[in-house]
Structure prediction request, 97 residues.
Amino acid sequence: MAPGDVARSVAARARARRVALGLTQQEVADRSGVNIWTLRRFEASGKLAFDALIRVAVVLDAIEAFGALFPEPEFRSLDEVIDRPKRQRGKRRTVAT
Prediction:
């Protein structure tokens, strides 16, 4: 699924949830602190800043879903844990004086 499709799908679900909760766009905008025109653009196109999306999700009582984003990797065996690549830090640059 393309990013634009995902965004539009999220917007459609947010709109459906807003309607199911009996809230107007203005009520969601007022409660979330998101400008009404920004909320309307989101519902039409799926475009919304992440922090604004979180505020809208709080108003729509849908914030729990954000906990499922970027899950920790699951290991199937101890060997996978042991053999996983180690994170390496970059070397510090020394400043010549």
In short: The two ends are 52 Å apart (CA to CA).
